[in-house]
Amino acid sequence: MVVVGSSALQRKDGAAIHAAVSSIAQNARSTSGAPEEWKVLNILHRVASQVAALDLGYKPGVDAIRKNPPKVLLLLGADAGCITRQELPKDCFVIYQ
What we know:
This protein is α/β, with parallel strands linked by helices. The protein is built from four helices and four strands. The protein has two domains: 2-55, no CATH class; 63-96, no CATH class. Strands 1-2 form a two-stranded parallel sheet. Strands 3-4 form a two-stranded parallel sheet.
């Protein structure tokens, strides 16, 4: 198993690091006889809650809010212009935290 921190892939040479660890992981898979479904290359993220949200089906962005306008919208640290008050129904109650 190869584990790489996500910050290593965000460096200027991140693409080269990714290519190198991908090659190492492929070699490890072929020489170890690991099953095809076994994940050899793993990325260790710094914000586990974001990964968990994606695992649970969260879709980033506000398109779903625009397509299905809510009655109540909780913006928790997300008041930086992602969606404007004008895009919401007049009866939508917005909570900013």
